[in-house]
Fold:
Amino acid sequence: MIEISPATIEQYFDKLFPICRSITGNGVRQTIDILKEIVPLYVHEVPTGTTCFDWEIPKEWNINDAYIITPEGKKIADFKVHNLHIVNYSTPIQAEMSYDELLPHLHTLPLMPDAIPYYTSYYKETWGFCLTHNEFEKLPKTGTYKVVVDSELKAGSMTYADLVLKGETDEEILFSAYTCHPSMANNELSGPLVQAFLYQKIAAMTKRKYTYRFVFAPETIGIIYYLSKHGEHLKTNLKAGYVVTCCGDAGDFTYKRSRRITSEADVVAEHVLAYSGNKYTILPFAIGGSDERQYCSPGFNLPVGSFIRTKYQEYKEYHTSLDNKDFISFDAMYETINMIFDVVKALEINEKYMGSIQHCEAQLGRRGLYSNLGGLKNRSNELSNRLHFLNYADGEHTLREVAELSNQSMLNFEKEIQLLKDHGLIV
Amino acid sequence: MIEISPATIEQYFDKLFPICRSITGNGVRQTIDILKEIVPLYVHEVPTGTTCFDWEIPKEWNINDAYIITPEGKKIADFKVHNLHIVNYSTPIQAEMSYDELLPHLHTLPLMPDAIPYYTSYYKETWGFCLTHNEFEKLPKTGTYKVVVDSELKAGSMTYADLVLKGETDEEILFSAYTCHPSMANNELSGPLVQAFLYQKIAAMTKRKYTYRFVFAPETIGIIYYLSKHGEHLKTNLKAGYVVTCCGDAGDFTYKRSRRITSEADVVAEHVLAYSGNKYTILPFAIGGSDERQYCSPGFNLPVGSFIRTKYQEYKEYHTSLDNKDFISFDAMYETINMIFDVVKALEINEKYMGSIQHCEAQLGRRGLYSNLGGLKNRSNELSNRLHFLNYADGEHTLREVAELSNQSMLNFEKEIQLLKDHGLIV
Amino acid sequence: MIEISPATIEQYFDKLFPICRSITGNGVRQTIDILKEIVPLYVHEVPTGTTCFDWEIPKEWNINDAYIITPEGKKIADFKVHNLHIVNYSTPIQAEMSYDELLPHLHTLPLMPDAIPYYTSYYKETWGFCLTHNEFEKLPKTGTYKVVVDSELKAGSMTYADLVLKGETDEEILFSAYTCHPSMANNELSGPLVQAFLYQKIAAMTKRKYTYRFVFAPETIGIIYYLSKHGEHLKTNLKAGYVVTCCGDAGDFTYKRSRRITSEADVVAEHVLAYSGNKYTILPFAIGGSDERQYCSPGFNLPVGSFIRTKYQEYKEYHTSLDNKDFISFDAMYETINMIFDVVKALEINEKYMGSIQHCEAQLGRRGLYSNLGGLKNRSNELSNRLHFLNYADGEHTLREVAELSNQSMLNFEKEIQLLKDHGLIV
Structure:
C-alpha cells in the first residue's frame, strides 16, 4: 500500500506533470505506467479506425520536437520548454515562410497576455503553435521564419486503462477520470490523481458491498469507446458513478448532478456534502461538461454525476499554461479524496433497514439501551437517534431518508446500526 | 388579407364601438357582420326557448330609443347619446310618473359621480336607466317625469359565430371572445378585436400542426349553448384554449390558469410570458371570471385559460362609460396579438423530439456543426444549445422542458430544430 | 350534561391534582372514577405479567407514606407534603443509614434549586427521593438518617379506561390521553381534562358521521397494551387520531404531525389551525414525544398526531413541582377544547361533494341564488364562494381542498352546503 498524504500526491504530480499527453500516443502510455504504481490497472489498446457508435478511433499522434526560428534567429514556441506551445495533434512540417503565411497558425490570448493557451485539432489535420500574446507582439513582420514540427500522425492505437475491484454484490460504483491533457494541473492531473489515491482507500476497506470500477481514458472518444464495450453491462449493474475532474484546487466543492437528477449517485453525494460542514455548490446536469455527456447520453442515461471543486471554464487559468502547480493545492486534493471516500461509505450503508420489532417500541430498558431512571427532562441525543432510527427501520426508508428526517448525516448512524444488529434489533 | 397594425385595429374599433350589443338582438348581428371582414365567420341563430343544460335561450331584445323627460322638460338618460343609459334588456314602457315612482328604476355610482354604470336584467323582466350621479343629484323631486323605453322583448333568436381553420391534425386550439357588451372598450371590444386579428396571423402560417377554432358568442349563455353543441367534441380534441378578454389596455399581461392548472394550455402560455421579457401576473383558476367558468365546469374541465391585461373588476373604469377609447391603447392591443401568436408558435413546436443518435454524442465535427479547433475556453451559446437539445431529444422531454432545463425560451430553438432535421440528427 | 367552562375545568383539576398517580395502582383508579363523572368510561384491569408485543405488564405499585428523618430529627422529602418527593415505583424500605449511603438515592436539580424533580424507576427495582437543591444543600453530612418508604410493589393489575361513542359509520376518530403522572399540571392533567370535556361537546352533536374513541391509559405501557387489543381494529377503521397532551398553558398551539405526514388527521388539523387566526407551530413527526411513538410505530403507522400547546421538554417547569396550577390557565384549556372541537367539525364535513349540474353553471338566478341585476362591479363574497364551491363539487375535491383553493376555512362553507342541499344542487 502507498501512504496517502499531500506529500505523496505531490510526488506523483511531479512525475506526471511534464508528460505531453493527448488522446493517443506514448504520453498516455507513460502516464498509465506511472498510475499503475498506485492502482493495478489493466491497459487496453484500441486500433485506429475502430468504430464506436457515431465515432471512429483516430490516428495515433506522437511528437518529438516543435519550434519556430524567427528571422532574428531566436527559437520561440519551443515544445521542449512547454508542451502547450504546440497545437495538440499538429501534423509534421519543416518549412520556411513569411510572417503572413505563419500568422493563421499562431494562437494567443490577448486578454491574458502572459498565458500560453491550450488548443487541439484532433479531427482536422493541420498544425499550429500557441504562444503568449506578449511574445507574439514582439515578432518581426518581415523576414523568413523557420517552422519545425517533428510529429507523427499515423495508424496506431488509443490507450486506456481500467480496474474492477470486486465486492459482495455485482452492483457497481464507477469512477472515471481522463488522461488526455498535456501539462496542466487542475484540468487535468487532479482527476486521475484523486481517483488513483481513492482506489487505495477503497481497496483497504474490510468489507465492500459494491463492486468498484475505475476508468482512466481520454476524454470523449475514450469514454465513447468504453461505453461501446461496457455500456450495456453498466446499464444493468451501475448503482452510482462519478466523473472526477478539476478537483485539485482549494475552491469550494461542486457536485454536478447526473441527468437523472435524483439517482442514488446524486442524493447520496448531495447528502454527504450537505452535512460535511463545507460550502458547496450543486449544478444541474444540463449538457456541457465532460465525460458525463457520454455516460448520460439518452441511450445510456447512467446515474453518473461529477465531483469538481472550481469548475472548468469558471477559473481564468483554465486551458492555459497558468493552470499549473501554483494553481492547485495538495492539501485540497487530499481533502477531495476524503470527501469522495465519505460518499463511498455512505453509499455502502444506505440500505433500507428492518427492525425485528415493528409493533410498538422495543423494550430497550431490559437490553441496557435505555436509561433506567425515567422522567429526565431531556433525552440524550444517542437515545433520540436510537428511537428515531428504530421507528423508521421499516424496510421502506433508506438510511439517508431516516437521517434527513432528523436533519443529520447518515454517517452518524454507522456505529448505532452495528450496536442494534448486535442486539438483534435489526434483522 | 387585412394588414395588422394599430391603425387598422383602431379603424375597426371605431366601427364597432357605437353599436348597442346585448346577449341577443340586431346589435350582435351587426357586430358579427363587421368582424366577418377580418374573419370568415359562420353565423348561427338559436331560437328563443331552446334549452341547453340547466339553461334556456331567452327572448330576443331590440331597442330603438329610450329617454326620460324631466318635469322641467329636459331630456336626460338618452339612449341615443350613450347606450349605457338604458339597463340592458329593459322592457318597453311609455308612462308618466312621480320622482318617487321613478327612483327604483334609476342606477348611479355615487363613488364615481361622472360615470354611467352598466347594468343588465336578462333574466327578470323590468326596465331601468343608468345615469351619472352628478346628473341624478340635479333631478327635481316633485313634478311629473315622462319615461320612454322603445324596446321589444319577444321570441326570436340568439346570434353567435365561429370558424374552424383546419390544420394537419384534428387536435384543436380554441380562442373564445364575447360579443354581448354595449359601448365599452376594454371590456369588451378588446377581446373580439384581438381575436379577429389573431385569426389573420394564424391563417397566414405556412404550416399548421393544429386545427384552430374561433368562437364569438354572448358571454355565459352563448358559451353554454356552444358547449351543448360542441362540448363532447372539444373534450376529445381540445389541446389548449384561451378566453381572450380585457386585453386592450397598456397594463401588464395577466394569464389566468385553467382549472387543470398544468395543462399544456397553461404551461406553454406561462413559458412564453416568462421568457417574453414582459412583466406579467399568473392568476389561479378559482371560479369567478368569464366564459372559462363554463369551459372549465367539472363536466367538461377543458384546458382553457384566459389572456387578459388589466383584469375585469380590477380597474375602476370597468363596467362604466369610462371604459372608453381613452382607456385603451391600440399599440397595446397590437402587442397582445403578437404575444398570443408567440404562444401559438410555441404550441406548434412543443413536441417530444427524437435524436437519430441516442448512444453517446453525435460526431458533430464531421458534419460542420462543431468547431474544429478544440480546447476553447468558452463554448459558444449556439453549440451549447445544440448539445443540450440533442441530449434531451430522447422522445420523452417536450421542447418546453428542454428549454426550461437551460432556462430559455422554446422559441430560441425554432431554427436549430430545422438545422438538425436537415442533417438527419432528428428523426 | 356538565356545563363546560373554565370554572368547571378548574373544579375538576382541584379534585384530580393531589392524587399520586403512576402507571399502576389506586391513584389511577381514583383518577378514572372522577373522570367518569364527565365521560361514561369503561374501566379495564390488566394483570401483572400479561405480555404485549415486546413488553410485560409490571407489578402494581401503591404507596402510603415516605419521608426522611435527618440526624437533626427534621422530617424532609415528605410524600404527604408533595408526592414528587418519592421516586415513582420506589420499593419499600425502613432503615437507618449515613449521608454517604443515602446520597445515591437523592435527586435534585442544581440549576432549578427551588424545584422538586420528577423521577420514576418503573423497570428497575430501587427507591429514591427527590428534593429541592436548596433543601439538599442544607443536609448535614454526618449523623444517622432514617429512611421510610411505606410502599408495596407486587402482582396486581394495570388500570385503563376507554369509551366508544357510535356515529353513523364505523370509521373512527381517536383521542388519547395519559393518566400516569402524579401532581403536575400541564404534563399531565391538562390532557385528560381537555379530552374529558371534549367528549361532552362531541356527545352533544346532533349528528355524527364518525365513531369517536376516547382512551385514558398510562403512557407507553398502557398504549402498548391497548394496541395489542385494538391495534388491528384501528388499522382498519381509524380515520384520524390525536394524542392530547401539555395543552393547558397559555402558549401558542402546537400540532405534531403523524408519521404519515399528510394523513387526513394532519391536513385537517393544520387547516383548522391555519385559518383559526391563532399563532401556531407545526412539528415534524420524528420520533420522541409521547404515545404517538406507539400508535405510529411502523407495524401500525396509524394517522395519529398530537395536540399540544407548549411542548414537553420545551418549558423549564416540565417534569418538576413547578408545573403546577400557577403554570396553567383554565381559559387556555377551555380554548384548547374549542380548537380541537373545530377540528372535529371540520373532519365531519370534509367530504367530496357532488353537484347535481356538472356541465356549465347552474342557473342560480331562477333559484333566487344570484342577483337579478347584472353587471355589478363587484361580486359578493357569498356568491363568489357559491360559484367556487359548485365548480369544485365534482366528487374529486375534498371540501378542505376547495376551501384552500380560495384561501379560507372549510368551516365557512358549513351553512352554504346546507343551502345548496336544500336547493337540490348537491346530491
Q: What stands out?
A: Chain A touches chain B at residues 52-55, 87-88, 107, 109, 117-124, 220, 223-224, 227-228, 231, 259, 284-288, 293-294, 296-301, 313, 318-320 (CB under 8 Å). Chain A is about 30% helix and 20% strand. Residues 352-422 of chain A form one domain. The mean pLDDT of chain A is 96.
